[in-house]
Amino acid sequence: MFFGRYFTKTNNAKRFFMKIKYPLTTLLVIAIWTVCLIPVPETPLDDVSFIDKWTHFVMYATLTTTAWCEFMYRHRKDDALRYPPLSFTVCPIVMGGLIELAQKYLTTCRSGDVFDFLCNTLGVFIGVGISVVLYRFLGRKR
């Protein structure tokens, strides 16, 4: 088993997580999957129009911006511009679709929604735009 070699000793769990190349992105992916598959309690924010859509938009814009920023931090400026990480654009879109399918077919408390998927995708593209702007301004200072 893959994880068996890392968790044989108590200190190995720390080493396993130190080997993750993009830790913040990994943490956000785990958080998004968790939040999207658990039951949502009633809150006063339920009265806000389209709060669910705004939540999806913000989650995926944050995820994409974080992934791109971690990539730009770990790679040289020229490489980041010459070889943009297409996977940081495609993978969140695919993940959004998978989450909506999981909500529809694997949970009883949530329902998959095409408009949630569209908000996820819009959030990804806005996140890419934010990342490019951040790269242009912060990349010059590096």
Explain briefly what this protein structure is:
The protein has 142 residues and is an all-alpha fold. Helix content is 69%, strand content 0%.
Please tell me about this protein's structure.
- This protein is an all-alpha fold and 142 residues long.
- Helix content is 69%, strand content 0%.
- It contains 6 helices and no strands.
- The protein has helices spanning 12-18, 23-37, 51-74, 77-82, 87-106, 114-139.
- The longest helix has 26 residues, at 114-139.
- The model has no long low-confidence stretch (mean pLDDT 81).
Key structural traits:
142 residues; mainly alpha; single chain
Helix content: 55-70%
In terms of DSSP E residues, the strand content is under 5%
Number of helices: 6
Please tell me the overall pLDDT. 81
Major sheet details:
none
Low-pLDDT stretches: none
Shape: globular
Class from secondary-structure proportions: mainly alpha
Cα radius of gyration in angstroms: 18 Å
Order of helices and strands: HHHHHH
Distance between the termini: 41 Å
Number of strands: 0
